[in-house]
Amino acid sequence: MKLYTYFRSSAAYRVRIALNLKNIPHELAAVNLLKSEQQATPYTDKNPQGLLPALETTQGVLAQSLAILEWLEETHPDTPLLPSNSWEKAQVRSFCYAIASDIHPIDNLRVLKYLSGELAATDEQKNTWYRHWIIEGFSSLEATLGEHAYCFGDKPSLADICLVPQVFNALRFKVDMSLYPKISAIYARCNSLQAFIDAAPENQPDAQ
Amino acid sequence: MKLYTYFRSSAAYRVRIALNLKNIPHELAAVNLLKSEQQATPYTDKNPQGLLPALETTQGVLAQSLAILEWLEETHPDTPLLPSNSWEKAQVRSFCYAIASDIHPIDNLRVLKYLSGELAATDEQKNTWYRHWIIEGFSSLEATLGEHAYCFGDKPSLADICLVPQVFNALRFKVDMSLYPKISAIYARCNSLQAFIDAAPENQPDAQ
Asked: Comparing C-alpha atoms, which of A9, A73, A87, A21 is closest to residue A47?
């Protein structure tokens, strides 16, 4: 398998964590978002959506990080990242989508570019926007978390895989994480695991 | 089951279609987005995320439309809405997320409110924004569609369930749908089915 990735893409970061947790052999192919390489050939020949990440497999190319995570879970069930119980699984997915749909896409680089371009937003307005959607999302997620070591129990799940890259972004944009002690504790715990460490942006071959 | 819904919420619209396609008995409880009822009690007692939809079941309340759709699919496998083959399933999910993560949340009412409030965007700027993210998304999705009656084959799937509400929004905001003949044909075909007709915004008890 080959993962098309960019060191600071949080959607790619999610897949890197899952590949590591499941010990799936893979190679990384860097696509530079700052140079808009994801919107040009040869990458768009692989993924017409023009977004990162994409996973190249023997069956073809799969786009969208959550679709990749679900597919990895189905085809590589060792080290499960979803509970087997349907209702518990639904709660984990709900947590994931609250990040992957309702925080991250609104703060995506292409949206920030639109804000500063077409809408002439200042850097300060852009940073406030960025923090606003994280704060909205984290406030409600913090309230739903129990007293477990990870988001849902004593092992990392897809919820933690979605949470950690979003916290990384929050710290980068100076969100006050002391407001979210449970999220912060889970973040620290995940980042003590080798699979998360190896997937971190600063440890990628294309890190700048 | 009780679905918390608003007639024009596209995420709620998705779940309404699925409940109808699967013939699952349910009641609807209207939550008025224009009055921000989703951000206040009693609704936030049910769904702390403060977003629509949420599904109340005998096991508890489930938030996030995609999590609800996946849970309905697992617990009510009649009239399947996902292929059984893992790779095909992954393609359907990828299509869904391209809408549910990369179009819809950026055009959500709360984002539009932020644009006109904090960023003082004009109505024209807001409408251009709205259309921009649909056009970006639909252009690549149109290119991935084959020559099937529905998005993936001869029966509706979760892909069609995500697509139809997004086309409804596109038409409302006057996106030139003639650019997307395959999407338009699928939209028309879905809207000839009773399950889609009954789920349409204009046919909801809370329609204004």
From this structure: A9
